[in-house]
Design a protein that fits this description.
homodimer, 9 helices, Quinone Oxidoreductase, Chain A, domain 1, 2 domains, 15 strands, Rossmann fold, seven-stranded mixed β-sheet
Chain lengths: 333, 333
C-alpha cells in the first residue's frame, strides 16, 4: 500500500494535526511514458506553510484533498519512460507520500555515490539553490562585504553564510540557542553569531558589525528585519527570501517600520523566488558539489522518520527545534 | 536689515510656530572670496521636516539656533569672488533669510530669461532632479510600463508622471482633491487619477491598473504604499523617495505590512537621495529645459509671500493645501 498525507483543511495560524489526513491507497501503476518512484525522503521547508494559504502567490495554493506538496528524493522501481531506468535515483516534487507515478517532468536523476540522498533535497536541492542564487545574484556580495543572515543554522541560512565566507565576506549569523550559534561559528566558520533567544539582537549587532552591514539575507522577517534595517551601510542590499516569524500569523504581517533606512542609505530590498533560476540549477549544483568535495561547504541534515510523524516534524520548522535541513524519511525499511 | 528665520526648537510631530524665531540682523558684508546674495525665493520641501530631527540621516540634522535650511534663488549684489558678477542670479542652499554671504560653494548661476526664478528651485532644482533621476535611474522605466505615483500634483510627483508619459508609459497619479486630479489628467496628460481624500485607493487602483503596476514612485508612505504593494507586477520597482504621511508622526513609522509582495513578485524597493546625482544635474536640467521649451513638460509653482509667513506656508506641505511646487518670496519689493 501507498501511505499518503492529504491536505484536508486550510490552517489559520499554526498548522495543527487536523490540517492533514493520513490515508492508504494501492500503489499506483505507471502508464505509458511514466515512472513509478519509491520515495525515500521528503523535504520540509517553511515555504510549505505559505502554499497552504488560499492567496495569490508565486505558486498555486494547494487544493484541499490533494497530497501535501513537498520536494522528495527516491528510487525508480518501474519505468515506462525511456529517460529513466529502474534503479535510478531521482529528485522532484513528489509530495508527502511513499510512492508516486509521474511523467518525469521536473524530475532529475541524482547520484547516491556522490552525496547522501537527503543532501539532494537540502544543499544540492531547493534550499541550496535558494542560498546560492540569493546571496550571489540578489545579494550581489563582493569580497570584504559584511553579511548578516538570519535563520543561520537552517537549510538556507547555513549555506548562505558559507558561500559568503568562500567569497571573502565577514559573516554574522542569527540563530536560536547556544548550540546553533556554536555550530555556525565553530563548524561552519562564521565570524560571529547572535543568539536571538538569549541575547539582544540590537546590541550584539552593534558590537559585531560596528560599521554596519552591506547585505542582510532575511529568512525570518518581523523584529529582526526591523533591527537589521537600523544597521545598513550605504548601498546595502536586503534579500527577502522568507519570513518564518510571520508565516503562522493570524493577524496582519508586521511590516518593517524602519524601511525609510532604505532611503537614508540608498539601499535596496529585493524579493526572490528560487524557481526563477531553474535553468541554472545545474551550474549551482556543480559548484556547490565541488566546494563540498573540497571541504569548504558543509551540509547538515536533520532526519526524522515515519510519514505519520509529518505534523510534529513540520512544527519544528517554526519552533526551531532542529539542526540544519529538516528531512523526513518516509520509506519503510 | 536682514530678516532671518532661526530654527530654535526641535518639533515633536507637526512643526508649530515655536519651532522658529524671526530675527533682524544687519546685512552682512562679503569677505574676500565671497559674494552677497539678495534672496528672492526660498524652496519649501517635505524633506525639511526630516532635517529638523536629531537623527542619523543622509544629511546632518540642523543645529538649534541656525538659520532654517532651505534651497533658494537670488541675485548677487556684491562680489569679491571672480566666479560671480554683480547682477548674476544664483541658486543654492541659502536658507530662510533675505541676504546671505557665501564663498559660492554649491551655488550656480541661473538665467531668468530662460525660466522664471521660482522654476530654478522647482522643476529645474532639487524636486525636478529628484523626479528625473528617481524615475529614470531608480525606477528604470521603459516604454509600456504602468507607472503609479503618489503626491502626483506636487513638485516631484508632477514631474515624475510627465517624464514617464514622455517615455511612453501609462501613468496613474494619486492626489488629494478633485482640483489636483483634474490638473494632472487634464493639464499634465496623466492617464488616470485617484483622489485619495474622496475615493477608495484600493478599488480605484484595481479599476485603473487591472494588470497591476510596474513602477510605484512613492512620496507618501503609509497606507498608500501598502495598497500599492498589493498591485505589483512581476519584477516591479518601488522607488522610495519620501514618506510625507509619516514625517509628522509622534509614534513609530508605519511599516509596509505587505512587503512580502516583493518576494511573491520578485520586486525591488529602493531608496534614493537626489544628492547622489549631483554631478549629472546639468544633464538633467538641459533635458528638462528642452522638454519645457517643447511644451512637453509643465512646471507649476505656488508662490506665497513674506518671510514672516514661513510657518503657515510650511504647514501646507503636509495638509496638501497647495498646487505644485511650494515657494516663498522673501524679498520685499
Amino acid at each position: 500500500m501507498n501511505k499518503q498525507l492529504l491536505f484536508v483543511k486550510r490552517p489559520v495560524g499554526e498548522a495543527g494535526d487536523d490540517t492533514w489526513d493520513l490515508v492508504s491507497n494501492p500503489i499506483p501503476e505507471p502508464a505509458d511514458g511514466e515512472i513509478l518512484v519509491k520515495q525515500h525522503y521528503i523535504s520540509l521547508d517553511p515555504a510549505m506553510r505559505g502554499w497552504m494559504n488560499d492567496a495569490k502567490s508565486y505558486i498555486e495554493p494547494m487544493a484541499i484533498g490533494s497530497v501535501m506538496r513537498a520536494g522528495s528524493v527516491g528510487e525508480v522501481i518501474a519505468s515506462k519512460n525511456s529517460k529513466f531506468n529502474v534503479g535510478d535515483f531521482v529528485s522532484g516534487h513528489g509530495g508527502v507520500q511513499q510512492y508516486i507515478t509521474t511523467d518525469g517532468k521536473g524530475y532529475y536523476t541524482v547520484d547516491p555515490k556522490l552525496a547522501p540522498l537527503p543532501t539532494y533535497i537540502g544543499t544540492l536541492g531547493m534550499p541550496g539553490m535558494t542560498a546560492y542564487f540569493g546571496i550571489l545574484e540578489v545579494g550581489k556580495i563582493k569580497e570584504g562585504d559584511v553579511v548578516l543572515v538570519s535563520g543561520a543554522a537552517g537549510a538556507v541560512g547555513s549555506i548562505v553564510g558559507q558561500i559568503a565566507k568562500i567569497k571573502g565576506c565577514t559573516v554574522i549569523g542569527i540563530a536560536g540557542g547556544a548550540e546553533k550559534c556554536d555550530y555556525i561559528t565553530n563548524e561552519l566558520g562564521f565570524d560571529g553569531a547572535i543568539d536571538y533567544k538569549n541575547e539582544s539582537v540590537r546590541n550584539r549587532l552593534k558590537e559585531l558589525c560596528p560599521k554596519g552591514i552591506d547585505v542582510y539575507f532575511d529568512n525570518v522577517g518581523g523584529e529582526i528585519l526591523d533591527i537589521a534595517l537600523t544597521r545598513l551601510r550605504l548601498h546595502a542590499r536586503i534579500v527577502i527570501c522568507g519570513a518564518i516569524s510571520q508565516y503562522n500569523n493570524k493577524m496582519a504581517v508586521k511590516g518593517p517600520s524602519n524601511y525609510l533606512s532604505l532611503l537614508v542609505n540608498r539601499a535596496t530590498m529585493q524579493g526572490m523566488v528560487v524557481f526563477d533560476w531553474a535553468k541554472r540549477y545545474g551550474e549551482a549544483a556543480q559548484q556547490m558539489g565541488m566546494w563540498m568535495a573540497q571541504g569548504k561547504l558543509k551540509s547538515k541534515e536533520d532526519v526524522y522518520e515515519g510519514i505519520e510523524n509529518f505534523p510534529e516534524t513540520f512544527a519544528r520548522l517554526f519552533t526551531g527545534n532542529k539542526m540544519g535541513k529538516l528531512v523526513l524519511k518516509v520509506i519503510e525499511d
